[in-house]
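Render this sequence as a predicted structure.
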Amino acid sequence: MWKPCLALAAALLLLTPVKASACATCACGDPTLTSMGTEQPFAGRLRLASTMRAWGITSGASQDSAISLRELRMDVSAAYVPLPWLTLAVTVPLQTRTVREVSLARERGWGIGDVEVSARATFFRDRNFAPNHLFSLIAGAELPTARTLKDTQGRPLSLDAQLGSGSVDPFAGVAYTGFQDAWSFLVSATGYLPTRGREDFRGGASLRGTLAAQYQPKARWALRLAADTRLEGNSDTLGVAETEGSGFIGFLSPDVLFSPTTDMVIQAGVRVPVLNRLNGYVRQTPILQAALVYDL
């Protein structure tokens, strides 16, 4: 008697629906390796990333008055897709910064910088599964989460040594992503409008753009080349304009992407300044970058 009951129970168990899971490539229908923020959205996608950057800049009204800044930064990011067309993201920066003046005076600070929150709305795709063309709107803000750093005497460090602006800085933009066999393309433009922060300082409004092409001959690796630009207006303190650092700068950014396992991407590259039209004495070092991205 028990054998027919056992067989019936086994049959019912096999017929019971269960939640299926699949890798990100299977869910979106595209095997393209993507960096954080350029992935194809599908409902329920959760992506985590850790990005390391090392860079430096020497700037001032003249060479005699210029100060040198060096920074090592790690961004910890998460992006979640609650709806097929909406991606929500948050980035928490961990920074260490050193500022050296001409007099050889030095300031150092480390800690959490200004957290960034953003939303990306995909308003057009040519098809629901494995689309070739995506158009998106981007909006967000940098929040004043960095604490005010002070020296051993309790005095606030200079603005250059602080890890955040102390202001709410909104941004908005538009992006296009295209996929064609082994090739993929990205075009984006984002405008930033800083508000007033510490010491009544307000950074200049800026427009940042990216034009990138990626070639992926194999499933595990890809080569990416991008042109990144920034056009920035004058900053001001107490309403007095400061022209140092405003103007245009362009970077050439080669990257290598590698996927050692399913749903993991490692990216390494450098942003090389190739066109510097910034006002004042400004010397930008190349920006070294490495990232680890994982889809849950």
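Summary. The longest strand covers residues 67-83. The chain has one domain: 24-295.
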